[in-house]
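[User]
Protein folding is very new to me. Any chance you could explain this protein sequence and its structure tokens? I have pasted everything here:
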Amino acid sequence: MLHLLAVAAALAAPQVDVPELFAEELPRVKDKTEIAVLLPQTMPDLFDEYFADASARRRSYDLDLGAAPDCFGANACFVATFTGERGGTPSGRQRVELARGRVGRFQPLSCGASCSPPSISWRERGATYEIQAKVDRRRQLVRMANSAIRHGPR
């Protein structure tokens, strides 16, 4: 029962439309890369503003969200990163079952000299995809990965 309440609360929490945040960047990224761009439809809305940045090469892309302009992945303003790379291997300590029979790897928050946000990665379409995000629970990253898988290429 408590699990169902927690899931209901997470689903009721405010969400932000991820493809909409990258609306200006997506056409440019898709023109440059040969791999499918996968993004979740939504993610938890935890910040007042979002600033999108993107880069792409023929065999990879990197879509970054910051809570401040020109964040470039700095810990203080980092929100999320969505990447795809031709080839590669998913990394992370914990195995997770994902949508459509995919198997992913989850890496919890890790801190040393600096902190690395939790991440989830998986392989499909000949590429490795990864989502790193400042979220509270593994369940949220799994939900985001499943959304990206189910929605397919953007």
Helices lie at 2-12, 18-21, 25-32, 138-151. The CA atoms of residues 62 and 83 lie 5 Å apart.
